[in-house]
Amino acid sequence: MNTERILVVDDEPDICGLVSDILTDEGYRVNAAETAASARQQITQSEYDLVLLDIWMPDEDGITLLKDWKDNKVLQCPVVMMSGHGTVETAVEATRLGAYAFVEKPPTTAKLIQTIRKALGSRNKQDDINTLVRNVNKNFVTPVGESAVMKKLFEICERCAQVNTNLFVSGEEGSGRYTIARYIHELGERAGKPFVMVSSEQFDMARADESTWSKLKTELIDSVKLARGGTIFFENADQINQVVQKRLVDLLQQLSAVQVFKRFNVKVAASITTEAPSILSDLQTTLSMTRISVPPLRSHSEDIPELVNLIIDNLCASDNYDYRKCSIAAQNAFLHYQWPRNITELKAIIQELLVTGGSEEITVDDVKQALPSKSSEVENKSTIVESLLDMPLREAREAFEKQYLLRQLKRVDGSVSKLAELVGMERTHLYRKLRSLGIGSKDSS
């Protein structure tokens, strides 16, 4: 049986009685208050583990009551707001004041119980969240480079860190867009504050499902609250489905209009991997974002030796790899590779060399064996083309489509939603095409 005590504050007797009965049936100890004055009295007389608070009451509204409790530090437990006609601005203000969540009136039993359980567990989770934020900040690796290209980028980063501008960080996959956004965060007054990342994957299921989208809106506001004084970073914003992109931009516009980012003192940053004129233009207009371009690794290859040594040091220090020094000849071999997947690919190659190598030094032969062979790639492509030319047109087209989609599927790590965006196909049609060609998401591995 639950031992938590809950106070229900609502001026409507029917709602107050309904909610109290539901929670009592769940085993909670429940008290009710139909006025703000009664709620104030009960809070001073007893300790509660949670308060359900109506926003609109005739004698005093719930927002004012919540603010008074927080200002005077008379209430330490989670508060869940209830409202039949709340607005985004009201929700944001309540969240800023410390409200945990919202439920609509009249609440469904399932939604109410789920929210109560999460709110009651939020105290313990908050310590975990704070620890996570500290660990993220602690594990940050400062970007390096002495090339003219990187020096210019670092100068831009320093200027961005001194002003309160939102950021759009563009560049190829694996080029270090996240690292640059974090670097700017750590350079200025936000250093040590939360850096909260929102992945594009979180929006995959929010296309037509209103309940899922509603949940995401609440989680987004919670993320802004968590990032108080710091930065919220939208990873790969261009890979979000275009329909959802529009809804996300509309939501961010609403939050910006009621100054939610200003109230929580949060900088907004986003990364894109391609030229995405729609979301780029919309977000730049909505949030007044400054564009920063991160160069591909091949444009500053003279920085590779420093990067190699940094990656080796970090892997050995954080992941317990055995140390292997990289010879000058091996570093030179790294310099002559084009690195289509940029720093991400460089790190993967070094990890492989640290694991598979037997000697204390990474040699040029080790590197040559680890790097993809250009000649073999050309030969393979030539063989594929020759085989296609010998097939009937229909079979050749199907064979090409299968090889093409398999390669693109690997580029997006098996995500069909990202694949649809990359190849420009409607998702339902793409699913049918993949099935007809015998391709599953497991084929991306």
In terms of topology, how is this protein built?
Elements (H helix, E strand, L loop, with lengths): L4 E5 L3 H13 L3 E5 L2 H10 L4 E5 L7 H10 L7 E5 L4 H10 L3 E4 L4 H30 L9 H15 L3 E5 L6 H11 L7 E5 L10 H17 L4 E5 L6 H16 L2 H4 L3 E6 L4 H11 L1 E5 L10 H16 L5 E2 L1 H8 L6 H15 L4 E2 L1 H7 L3 H16 L3 H19 L4 H8 L3 H10 L9
Parallel strand pairs: 1-2, 1-3, 3-4, 4-5, 6-9, 6-10, 7-8, 8-9, 11-12
Descriptive terms for the model:
single chain, 445 residues, alpha/beta, Rossmann fold, Helicase, Ruva Protein, domain 3, 4 domains, five-stranded parallel β-sheet, 19 helices, 12 strands, elongated
In summary, what is this structure?
With 445 residues, the protein is α/β, with parallel strands linked by helices. The protein has helices at residues 13-25, 36-45, 62-71, 88-97, 109-138, 148-162, 177-187, 210-226, 242-257, 260-263, 277-287, 304-319, 328-335, 342-356, 364-370, 374-389, 393-411, 416-423, 427-436; strands at 5-9, 29-33, 50-54, 79-83, 101-104, 166-170, 195-199, 231-235, 267-272, 289-293, 325-326, 361-362.
